Amino acid sequence: VRADNLRVVLVSPRNPLNIGAAARAMSNFGFLHLGVVNAYDVAFREARSAVGASAVVGNAVEYASIADAVADCSLVVGTTSIGNRQLQHPLRRLEFGGRLIRRALENERVALLFGSEKFGLSNEDLSWCHWLIRIPTREEHGSMNLGQAVAVCLYELIRRPATGKPESRKAASSAKVDRITDYLLEALRESGYARTLSTPAKIRRMIRRLNIPEQEGEAWMGLMRQIVWKLTQRGPSTSPPSPR
Amino acid sequence: VRADNLRVVLVSPRNPLNIGAAARAMSNFGFLHLGVVNAYDVAFREARSAVGASAVVGNAVEYASIADAVADCSLVVGTTSIGNRQLQHPLRRLEFGGRLIRRALENERVALLFGSEKFGLSNEDLSWCHWLIRIPTREEHGSMNLGQAVAVCLYELIRRPATGKPESRKAASSAKVDRITDYLLEALRESGYARTLSTPAKIRRMIRRLNIPEQEGEAWMGLMRQIVWKLTQRGPSTSPPSPR
């Protein structure tokens, strides 16, 4: 994604922690242009001076109006949790709206607007937007924390489709699995485990199904060998077993 | 997604705001089972008593160990920002790991572990995990805020693939567009706009390309009519124009 073409714009943010959190998520996902409109002065100053504040906050630009903040953008998208407001704009789920934004970013500057923690974007604010996106939260609790909303939206923009299958892990060789099985059978024999409970063939199948990873075959062999050594030991001895 | 089968487990969280933020994101996305292991006591109490704390925090279960917290889960997935640690586990990008988790949730309980704000999950913690996921943050700034990391992971779990095309908006009828064009041409004529700059045909094409939405055709006609009325008015008058 052409992250350089995105302007994240916080409108009327009130809480310095939220400004800082939004900036941090931006930095995490590589979106570095933050604009702030009508910020509560103290909040903005505190966010800038916070310990560990990211460069994104330091470089944030303060604008007097939304018009100024989005002036160089040809697509302006607002975020909303809907609530009770009657919306006059096309409203898209983030998954879908995100795809449109990603496409637009290839050729043009896009502004993504977030409203204040308490009230979201006003109808006046929304009149600068071409359309709106909504994070698919559940109806009973739709309104997200500002910093988290920014993180989720930006994640959607950088996200790649999951492709391929789970990597199949390489299993230990059959010879190694056989030796592990032999140790276990020997240990059971020495322990007096009743053959009627599980036949050697059944135990062999059980071990196969474990699908022991290649890089752990040696370790499994080693620890089974140690147990067998202890079980078959006649009289006291402290010498460790040597590999067969 | 079978959200009821997921256990979100915060290991050694230190900051009450982060516990609250994690719980809020869970509530937003409909995951209601929060477990907390080895929480700093004061943090947990403060998170519970915070104004606006969600029911998720209220119902959070405190566990003495990770083993207890994940005891009823058959898949345990850890989160990591990698950092410098040598990982012994398969590490999957969130997009891909999320798909596996979603699938597992259909049939079994899954635990998703998040480490402390400062250190993440320790190697000891990770030994309870089957595999790990990583949010695809950029290398230069990989470590996410805890509440934001929870929000992004849960969003991935509830997210639906974006399908379909942008809805094509219904455009105003050709007849209406023609009348709007006629008003504009009349207004230009009355204003003394030089025909050599834009011929009527060119202006007709410009208006067509605006693709005026059906529901706004009337409004555009009305305001153009008003302008034409004012331009063509001879002498003072206050009577509004009537529709033609």
Q: Please provide the count of β strands of chain A.
A: 7
Distance from N terminus to C terminus of chain A (CA atoms, Å) equals 57 Å
User: Segments of chain A where pLDDT lies below 50 for 5+ residues?
Assistant: none
Order of helices and strands of chain A: EHEHHEHEEHEHEHHHH
Radius of gyration of chain A equals 30 Å
Strand content of chain A: 5-15%
Assembly state (oligomeric): homodimer
Number of discrete helical segments of chain A: 10
Strand order of the largest sheet of chain A: 3-2-1-6-4-7-5
- Largest interface: pair, residues per side: A-B, 42 and 43 residues
Largest sheet of chain A: 7 strands, parallel
What does this structure look like?
2 copies of one chain form a homodimer. By secondary structure, the first copy, chain A, is α/β, with parallel strands linked by helices. In chain A, 43% of the residues lie in helices and 12% in strands. Chain A has 10 helices and 7 strands. Chain A has helices at 16-29, 41-49, 55-58, 66-69, 94-105, 123-126, 146-158, 174-191, 200-210, 217-232; strands at 6-11, 34-37, 61-63, 75-79, 91-93, 110-114, 131-134. In chain A, strands 3-2-1-6-4-7-5 form a 7-stranded parallel beta sheet. In chain A, helix 1 (16-29) packs parallel to helix 7 (146-158). The longest helix of chain A has 18 residues, at 174-191. The mean pLDDT of chain A is 88. The interface between A and B is large, with 42 and 43 residues.
